[in-house]
Amino acid sequence: MSLQRSKRPDAASHPPPTGEDWAWQDLDFFDSTARSEALLVLKDFLRDHPEATMDHDPDWLHSKCGQDKSVKIFVCHAPDGRLSGYAPFFVHPSSLSFELFGIALWEFPIRRYSMTAGPLLSPGVSAGKVLPSLFDHLWQTLGRRETLFGLGVELDSAFGRFIQQHPGLREKYQLLPSGKAYRRRLIALPASFDQYIQGLSANTRKDIRRTLRQFEQDSAITVSYRVYTAPEEVLEFLPLAQAVSDKTYQRNLLGLGICDNPETRRNLTIAAENGWMRSYLLICNQQPVAFQHGYLHGNTYYAEQTGYDPAWARKSVGTIMQIYRIRDLIDKGVARLDFLYGDNEKKRSLSNTYREERNFHLIPRKFPLGLLAYGLHGFNTVSELMGDFIERWGLKSKIRRILRQRSTNQD
């Protein structure tokens, strides 16, 4: 690849910054030729960048666009014209929610500019040098009901340190954590399944082997599982996965889960056409009992959604499905499985590495959002103190267990 390919397209129309002026520009204001060239440069940039994720891929972001959803891409070039920064945002309707124990008491509708992990910078480029101008530009352009959101921000990353410590950012934005910090669990997949098992704790190895043996040797159960990757398989996978999802506490209590609707069918079909979709279904006695849905992008598998039929919980079908998926990914030569956001006991037991992350609202100090941010900050502080009190007395897990049982027995 020549050095000219890394330089800014259409320099006559969009001259690169000079001196210390690290200007960020919106690709929406590039003409069609310059935009196409910029996207080609970005593909090279993302392919070689060690921190790039699926949510940095413009093709993936645009595949999720639909009604009221769009993508905003900002790029920054060094004084010599080389690409030095890239900041993609997925723009969608959302809300600032006043929640107590996970239940929304009041919501203020907004449009949210969401970014996963953070902007990508070229090696040697200082976040403190280039990011202030990005957030200054965004502050000037955001509307009265538009905010920023950092999803899965690694706390010890350059971006994580910037948003938590940079004094200039706090002058224009109110930084509000969304939930507590968590450990994002991953599996660095070895060359064989036996190697993976040997890397787990002794108790986990024992549990997995016992669970597999008892399940696979049960003569009362006929077992099969399928891997779905092709566009024509989406219409088969979705209704079966939703049939399982509808029985889970996530659906009945939280309204979450996989849905067989036009938007999901469209998104999964596009993903399959691009070779990203890789979803799994476990079938016992001719009935779907567990599913895993995710995407294989580059050499990383992103575990998007999971669910199992609570009537089959004693057979540990959720664990069985996890193990079948891990074995399949190892056989395929995938390097990494990413459990994505949040943490739980199952992720801890199956993973072999992690990083500390947190989600953040960056709310512009403008009316009415600036005033609302102060109220939300106070409300969240009280809510967290109440949650800590309940957890300290061992009530949180009991409440969660009761709610799960009620939600899965609603029939």
Automatic annotation (TrEMBL):
Q: Extract the GO molecular function terms from the UniProt entry.
A: transferase activity
Q: Which residues cross the membrane?
A: none
Q: Which organism is it from?
A: Nitrosomonas halophila
SUPFAM superfamilies assigned:
Acyl-CoA N-acyltransferases (Nat) (SSF55729)
Among InterPro entries, the record links this protein to: Acyl_CoA_acyltransferase (IPR016181), BioF2-like_GNAT_dom (IPR038740)
Domain of life of the organism encoding this protein = Bacteria
Q: Where is this region: Disordered?
A: 1-20
> Which part of the chain is the BioF2-like acetyltransferase domain?
203-348
This chain's protein is named Acetyltransferase (GNAT) domain-containing protein
Q: Which UniProt keywords apply?
A: Transferase
Return the Pfam families for the record: Acetyltransf_6
